[in-house]
Amino acid sequence: MPRLGSENLTSETGFILLGLTSHRKEQILLFAIFLTIYLLTILGNLLIILLVNTDVQLHTPMYFFLSHLAGLDIVYVTTTLPQTLAHLLAGKGVLSLTRCMLQGGSALSLGSTECLLLGVMAYDRYLAICNPLRYISAMDKKHQHLLATSCWIIAGVFSMVNVVFILHHSFCGPNHINHFFCELHFLLDLACDDIKVTKAIFNGLSAFIVLVPFGVILCSYSCILYSICQMQSTTRWQKAFSTCGSHLVVVFLFYGTIMSIYIIPQSSSFPDRNKNIAVMYLVVTPLLNPIIYTLRNKDVHRAVVKVWKRRNFEGKL
Q1: Which residues pair with 17 in a beta bridge?
Q2: Are 150 and 216 in contact (CB under 8 A)?
Q3: pTM (2 decimals)?
Q4: What does the pLDDT look like over 61-97, one tens digit per residue?
Q5: Residue 277: exposed, middle, or buried by beta-carbon count in 10 A (0-12, 13-18, 19+)?
Q6: CA distances from 252 to 108, 130, 132, 297 (A)
């Protein structure tokens, strides 16, 4: 078949997402589970944003970045889960090339933003614990907004570069993607022409986006761990360890799954491995973030109590 005809065939039929399962009962069960997770994720992250914006005591750099992470997670799950839910309910998933690129590009941009933002949050904790005298000037409002905005811009450019390179390739079949959403990393493998250069660029940029902030996190927490061990006050030691411990749980959950797909070589022996791992960083981690950050956080607990008392007081008036 001529190349032009092949491209037209792909654009007409679109890409078929195989999803997590082909069994109808399992699809309905997954629909119920994913819908519950989606609603809880939105609710939990909205609660964090509400608390940070309403309680003056939470107007600190740490909670500023945490509110950014919460907002990011809301948008992140919304780019993929509603479409996945629709596919589970319908029993099949088909996306055009344009919709596939939009979904994959958005997910890549938001996931990259989270990688960078977690690195910034680790740097913030390093300054707060290891350089408290410099912390106020180094993390003023200007620097907070600069760091947060830089994460969004760098990730957006990274995603746009990959989308532009992928769009230069032709897709003439097969058009089946063994995933539950259109991830660009796997869409590229369906291109009909030579993808070596694009693959190298994609892998190089992915390694930069993942490994650089991960290196910042490791260095920051190595210094933090050393500083914690030098602390004489048990109260300060417990507070620092509790705050940093929750952050490390999020980091290892997110980076561990991301690296297993984008950095570690993939095995053809387990074709469903990648989409099962993707559930962790795309579905589970955004749900766990608000839980992990607030479970043992006394500042957030106090903010919840204050908001609750205020609502009760206003209701009695």
Answers
A1: 93, 177
A2: no
A3: 0.87
A4: 989 999 999 999 999 999 999 999 999 998 888 888 8
A5: middle
A6: 19, 22, 26, 19
Beta strand segments in the chain, E: 15-17, 93-95, 176-177
What is the distance, to the nearest Å, from the Cα of residue 113 to the centroid of all Cα atoms in its chain? Answer: 7
Determine whether 197 is exposed, middle or buried from the number of CB atoms within 10 Å of its CB (0-12, 13-18, 19+): exposed
**Tokens found for residue 227:** 């500083």
Residue with tokens 């933002």: 117
* Opening angle at CA 90, ends 16 and 42, nearest 5: 95
Q: Is 94 helix (H, G, I), strand (E, B) or coil?
A: strand
Of 247, 239, 257, 231, nearest to 298 (Cα)?
A: 239
Cα angle 207, 280, 73; round to 5 = 80
Average pLDDT, integer, range 93-112: 91
- Maximum Cα–Cα distance across the chain: 75
